[in-house]
Specification:
It is built from 21 helices and six strands. By secondary structure, it is of the alpha/beta class. 47% of the residues are buried. The mean pLDDT is 91.
């Protein structure tokens, strides 16, 4: 009941139940009940902001656990004491508690407790600027729960925090340690002193795509490649992007279709959008179409993209995505949109189009650069204004009519800044994707939807595919 009322935010009632349980434990001389509920009461006090009282309760829980020989409860008490000490930036004290908790957790073989203790250890070490040991602790924490599907959110949080630390500290060697330790433990060859960063990347990506669910894979994959692509000559960046996508689409990797598509989208969102040629993009698109039965690609005579996507939404939706110019940058944006729509169709269905049947089953999306479209149509006819976000999405003036025009996406010439999740939780393409979803949903439903109804759902979906860690500037 204490946890129930804590979730409701009723700390007074939560405290009452914890105190009552402690009294029962005292009467029965049940150290387990005492320790567990002292910890619960400490967490209530922490919710109230009374950190000193919280520590007093956690210490009492530790003493009850020691008196009863309850190693798990002793470790749990030390883990939460470490958490409070980290919150107060008392990193040396936090380190002691976390090390004690981790040692006991490893002795009793509790993987979740190991992960929690190692996470607090990592936070304390990071607070002391010992980044090497912090990443090592994050690695141990993630490795402990890697195979536990019910702890995937915790696993992703650990990996994300570790990757963010590697990026902000500009320590590629730490990233190698993390990727090899969590995703490619068999990578190191006997006798080798070091692993090349790109070798670690190519080995880790397929494993990552197998473990992490699609929505969380996007920011994690982008975090993994972003700093490896940053400030590289275009010829090197091109090679990294192509080799990384090859690793994901290799039939021997046995990566689930939507996971591979999402990971490729993440790599493209993290790259500069100017290192790949139309030929590169056409080759990659054909490989993607071969990899997924829900994606069809046919290049136009000038190399422009023509995508046909079969989305598993309602009783089936077909989206045609046409590139209106021959710009490689536009082709990249079109490919990312195609991959996001296809790999996330389950989320789109769940959040935005949760119906057995919908009025329309087809949509056409045309995409082009502002410069090219203005050359063809003239700025007066196009009328997209200043485009402060770098894009505009034109929609039908009456979505209820039987005959509908294509959805038109207009991008600024330099649209698509490389996504660095450790700097920005969302990329330019996230914002474009959100706007495309808004217009697409209204088109498929054949009616205008009030912004206060649709917008929160789209925001929730898009935030789920963004980075949830805090950028350094936050």
């Amino acid at each position: 009941m204490t946890r129930h009322y804590r979730k409701l935010g009723d700390t007074a009632r939560a405290a009452e139940f914890a105190i009552e349980a402690i009294q029962i434990g005292d009467e029965l001389q049940d150290r387990h009940v005492i320790a567990a509920n002292r910890t619960n009461l400490g967490s209530v006090r922490r919710d109230e902001g009374a950190l000193d009282q919280a520590l007093d309760e956690y210490r009492a829980a530790e003493q009850a656990a020691i008196a009863g020989g309850l190693r798990e409860e002793e470790a749990a008490a030390n883990e939460v004491m470490a958490s409070v000490r980290n919150e107060r930036k008392e990193y040396a004290l936090a380190l002691n508690h976390a090390q004690h908790a981790s040692g006991i957790a490893q002795l009793i073989g509790d993987p979740v407790l190991i992960a929690r203790a190692e996470e607090e250890l990592a936070v304390a070490l990071k607070g002391q600027n010992d980044f090497d040991a912090a990443v090592s602790a994050y690695t141990d924490a993630a490795r402990a729960i890697r195979s536990l599907s019910h702890e995937q959110s915790f696993f992703v949080s650990l990996v994300g925090d570790a990757l963010g630390l590697c990026a902000t500290s500009r320590r590629i060697d730490l990233k190698i340690h993390l990727l090899a330790g969590v995703f490619a433990p068999d990578l190191r060859i006997a006798g080798e002193d070091s692993i090349h960063p790109l070798r670690a990347l190519y080995a880790a990506l397929p494993s990552m795509a197998k473990i992490i669910r699609v929505d969380r894979l996007l920011p994690i994959a982008a975090l993994t490649v972003a700093d490896l692509l940053a400030d590289k000559p275009q010829v090197i960046e091109r090679r990294i992007v192509l080799e990384a996508t090859n690793a994901l689409l290799d039939p021997t990797s046995i990566v689930a279709t939507n996971s591979a598509l999402a990971a490729v989208a993440a790599i493209l969102m993290a790259h500069s959008a100017s290192c790949l040629t139309l030929g590169d993009l056409a080759d990659l698109a054909e490989r993607l179409a071969h990899f997924s039965g829900h994606v069809y690609f046919k290049p136009e005579s000038d190399g422009a993209a023509h995508w046909t996507l079969r989305l598993q939404i309602a009783d089936g939706v077909v989206v045609t995505l046409l590139q209106l110019d021959d710009s490689p940058r536009t082709a990249v944006t079109a490919m990312i949109l195609a991959l996001l729509l296809t790999s996330l169709d389950g989320m789109i269905r769940r959040y935005l189009l949760d119906a057995v049947r919908i009025p329309r089953h087809e949509a056409i999306i045309n995409i082009g650069s502002r410069k090219e479209l203005e050359a063809q149509l003239g700025p007066t006819l196009l009328q997209v204004g200043n485009m402060p976000r770098g894009f505009a999405v034109a929609e039908s003036t009456d979505v209820t009519r039987a005959v509908q025009p294509p959805i038109l996406v207009v991008c600024a010439d330099e649209f698509g800044r490389p996504w660095r999740p450790y700097e920005n939780a969302l990329s330019d393409t996230h914002l474009l994707f959100a706007e495309v979803l808004r217009v697409l949903v209204a088109h498929l439903l054949g009616k205008t939807i009030e912004p206060e109804v649709l917008s929160p759902k789209i925001v929730t979906l898009v935030r789920r595919i963004g980075y949830r860690g805090l950028p350094p500037s936050a």
